[in-house]
Each structure stands twice: as C-alpha cells, then as structure tokens.
Amino acid sequence: MTTDLFDRFDVIDVDTHVTEPPDVWTARTPAALHDRVPHIERIDGNDVWMADGQRLGHPGYYSMAGYDGVMPKSVPATFDEIHPSMYDAEARVTFMDEQGIAAQVLYPNVGGFGNAHFLQLPDQDLVRTCVQAFNDWVTDFTSVAPHRLVGVTAVPFWDLEFAVEEITRCAENGHRSINFCNQPDDHGEPPLASPHWDPIWAVAQEAGLPVSFHVGGGSMGTQFVDTAGMGWMTNFARVSSLIFLDNMRCIADVLFGGICHRFPDLKLVSVESGAGWIPAALEGFDWQWRNGGGREEHPDYDLLPSEYFRRQIYGCFWYERDSAVHAIEAYPDNILYETDYPHPTCQFPGPATPAEYPRDYATGALGGLDDALLQKVFHDNAAALYGL
Prior knowledge:
alpha/beta; six-stranded parallel sheet; three-stranded parallel sheet; 12 strands; about 15% strand; globular
C-alpha cells in the first residue's frame, strides 16, 4: 500500500531549526546589555546578528527553505524575506498542519549546533546570561504547542557545574532533550569519551532526556577553507557531505569510550548525520572491537558496539533513498525521520535544489516498506524517545 504516507502516519520530524527572532536576547535581558547580547543590525541592506561589536551570523543563510537561490550568491537579506514559520511559533504550527507533520524537534542556529558560538562573547557572565536567555526563549516558543514543538536545551559544556544546573532547570521547564557538543576537544575541553563528562550523562539519564549530537558541533572553520580552489559552493557541498563523518567519530567515541556501559538508560541521538552509514560503521566497530582486543582490555563491557547502539542510540535521515531503507531494515528501532527545515539542505525545495517535499520524498523513497516499519520510523521511535 503506497498511498501518501503522511496521511497514514502521525509524522514526527526529529531535526528542524528555528530562525531565532530578533528579540530572543533583547527581550530577556536588561536594556544596558542590549548592545552586548546577540541582536539584529541592518548592515548594507542585510539583517546581521551582532554581539558586543562582533558579527555572529546572517539569519538568511539558515532560512533557505523555498528560497530561489543558492548560498552564498542569493539568500534572504532581511526578516521581511523569511517566512514567519521559521521564527514564529504559531506560524510554525500552522505550517506543520499544512505539511502533515504532527511534531517537530527544534534546534538552534545563532548559538551554534553544539552551542560553542556563545564562547565568542567576551566574558563568562555575559555568556551565562545569553545561554539562560536562549533556553528561556525555547521554553516560551514551545509553550505554544508543548506536545508538538519539542524543546532542546542548549548545554554550556565549557562550565560543568553550570551545565548540570541548566539541564536540571530546563527539564523542569518542559524541555525534552539536550543539545551537546559532539567534539568538545575542538574547543579546548576534554574529548567526548572522557569520564569528565559523566555528570552530564548522569543528570540527563536521571531526567530522562536524550542527548543530541548535532553535526557541526565541533570547529568547522578549517573545513570551509578552500585550499584546492574548488569554489565556495563546491566546497560547501563537500563539507556538507563530510560532516556525516564527524558524527560517525562521535558515535565511535560514545561506544568505545564506555558511555553506554556506564549509563545504560541514557539515550543518545546522532542528528542530521544521515543513516545509511550506520550498518556499515557498526559492522566495522564490532569486528575491530573483537580484533583489536577490546574485550580483553574492557571485560566489563558486556555488549558489542552494535548491541549498545541497538539499546541506546538513534540516527536520523532526510534525503537518502536506498541506503536509508537498508538502515531502517537493519536497525528498525533506532532510525528517526527528519526534514532539516529550514536549512539549505532541507526537504522544502527552492527552485535551485534537488529536494522534494517531505510527503513526496517519503512516499517515493519509503513506500515499499511495510507498515510496521513505517510506524516505527515516522512515529513510534521518536514518540517514545521524546515522551510524546
């Protein structure tokens, strides 16, 4: 049966982003700080995020859904060109109704995919204020439809005590997941596999919050340096493909570092990193674990890497076809569906992209799967994970 799948299942979209509206920080901090916290300035006809005289980014670059252009040649210049569903909660819910999507998990932009952009601010007191203001805005945004808009806490990983406090505070405010840096060592912190991070995993496990590792959480600066002279757009395509490997490394750190062994009830999600690589990577992890003497060195690890993955880890996909089907069939309880709305790679096409609308992609790519698998991938796995 291959009728429109979005009409047959309550689809949960596990990776979308919100284009933070201009007043996220200025509405939640004293007036004396408004030039120092992230705010929008109009520069050469473009809306630009600024903080304490530093440029933090351009909202048009991550608001490309449906836009007739390709970065960096053509992006929305101002908020007037950005669809309200990208920054307004009620408009987002209306948009979801139109698209046939029951719920969406929401990730940031300005603070970075691993929250490290906050570290560009000049002092720790200001950083703390900005992190708390952002998480308070997430609470406000999702309160419009708390069972459809899923809030994810920005974790200040560079300050362990503050991070634990913020996770606890945001869990009490209804957040359903935490966003953690996939490569903290890129920012001068201990590597992900280090027991240094055990207080984070402990508080997340106790609160029942899955830990999200979004691609791009490490330092991507050197990747965007086009030393070969390919051209900006060609290099962007290369980098967008290779960041999948960053999360492959992240999951390897989680598995081989014993995080799943020490925290058996902790759930972890590899976000916006594709799913087709998962069966091959796990087959390799298992083989090398046995071949390299891992069992001898860690007899306390009672499961193979793939078995820990089945118990605790999830991957997401949004445009793969045959490789996604293979991953779903191999790991039906661990694969989640996303759209990446409204980013440049999302499944909401502009005229210059090869993307398909989510319902068209889903029916074409996944229509051959049986209903039991589709129910898991579109709804049940995510509903259980996020308590929906």
